[in-house]
Design a protein that fits this description.
The chain is α+β, with helices and mostly antiparallel strands and about 210 residues long. It is built from 5 helices and 10 strands.
Length: about 210
């Protein structure tokens, strides 16, 4: 009996040691993952360091035409027709793709802009905040990495970013309109329509026909 008790206590001790070891390994792995994620984030280069709510106006070139928008009292309007009601959530989603933008790498000696598609950019996005204006020039797609060349007009640096911003900023103002709710049409009695059309009471007419048949 005493021997079995000692064996049982020994098993409990072994289980406790294993549990502690497992817990320690789990914590260690979690810290390593957090460290690697932090280092990876630190390696990314900041291209745009302001937030969506900071943007007070923006514009982009689409099909050779410039579309400009302005925010007033939290609502966005198109400068071409301020009477249109735009979907603010759609516009914010567009801006979310570019504000806080980071790059995987940068090219500091890219003097020949043509080889990056930046001599004649495929797209230009201008963002205005209280601190000034930032203009992003969109270049070609890198065939090897699948990333896109981008240059900040106010800087000589060329970045490689993973987001296809030309695809994001590709909507016309008409596509950004807010959908208006339409009221359900009221149901109409079919007999009322017939009576109005022929100028007689359908009920009375049917009653007179019955009496005639009798």
């Amino acid at each position: 009996m005493e021997k079995q008790k000692k064996q049982f206590l020994g098993m409990l001790l072994v289980l406790a040691v294993l549990a502690a070891a497992y817990g320690g390994i789990h914590v260690y792995n979690q810290k390593q993952e957090e460290k690697e994620a932090s280092e990876e984030e630190a390696e990314k280069l900041t291209v745009v360091d302001f937030k969506t709510d900071d943007v007070t106006a923006f514009s982009y070139v689409l099909g050779g035409q410039v579309y400009a928008y302005t925010k007033t009292d939290g609502e966005w309007t198109w400068d071409g027709d301020i009477s249109l009601t735009l979907d603010t959530s759609q516009i914010d989603a567009m801006l979310d793709a570019v504000t806080g933008l980071t790059a995987e790498s940068e090219i500091t000696d890219g003097e020949d802009l043509a080889q990056y598609g930046l001599e004649n950019p495929s797209g230009i996005i201008t963002l205005t905040t209280a601190d000034g204006t930032t203009t992003l020039q969109l270049g070609d797609k890198n065939a090897v990495t699948g990333q896109y060349y981008l240059k900040v007009a106010e800087s000589d640096k060329i970045y490689l970013v993973s987001r296809d911003l030309s695809g994001t900023f590709s909507k016309t103002p008409q596509e950004l309109l807010k959908e208006e709710e339409t009221d359900e049409p009221e149901s109409v009695d079919a007999t009322e329509g017939v009576e109005a059309a022929v100028g007689v009471d359908v009920t009375e007419s049917a009653a007179s026909e019955d009496s005639t048949e009798e």
